[in-house]
Specification:
By secondary structure, the chain is mainly beta. A hairpin with a 7-residue loop joins β1 and β2. The chain has two helices and nine strands, in the order βββββαββαββ. It has one domain. The strands form two sheets. Strands 1, 2, 3, 4, 5, 6 and 7 form a seven-stranded antiparallel β-sheet that branches. Strands 8-9 form a two-stranded antiparallel ribbon.
Length: 145
């Protein structure tokens, strides 16, 4: 039997009512939808070779049915449901809809990502009126002309 401290980490599953697992097109990830329109993917990634890190990506469905950036309420729900209260939000993807929460499995590795000092940020908003939240996106411009 593998000791708990060395057991491989699994994607986090949401707690609470209202979540339904859906088919994930992402290998090694699980996907969930909530009755409020929040959608989340959960995986374990090895970011920069630093060891396993839980990753929860969050979007939500707008009133018209479109997928949009999750607002304040959706992010609070995802942080609570996936036990990611200590997670750092760090958004780098080419599509600026997903809001990503990252939490190293090893508590000793839980510190701000070095990219925050190295990568320029663009700040905008996420969420519907009345539920706005700041959204910070980082773009790696190294090698750009």
């Amino acid at each position: 039997m593998t000791p708990a401290s060395t057991a491989p980490a699994e994607p986090r599953r949401p707690r609470g009512d209202g979540w339904t697992e859906i088919v994930s097109p992402l290998q090694g990830a699980t996907m969930w939808t909530h009755i409020t329109g929040v959608k989340a993917s959960s995986s374990v990634d090895d970011v920069n070779g630093d060891g396993p890190t839980w990753h929860v990506g969050v979007t939500q469905r707008s009133a018209s049915g479109a997928t949009v950036r999750a607002g304040r309420t959706a992010m609070r729900l995802a942080r609570w449901a996936f036990d990611m209260k200590e997670a750092e939000e760090d958004n780098h993807g080419p599509v600026r809809v997903l809001r990503s929460l990252w939490l190293p499995v090893d508590p000793a590795r839980r510190k701000p990502c070095a990219c925050k000092a190295e990568t320029p940020e663009e700040v905008s908003e996420a969420g519907a009126p009345g539920d706005r939240d700041a959204y910070v996106w980082r773009v790696d411009r190294r090698g750009a002309s």
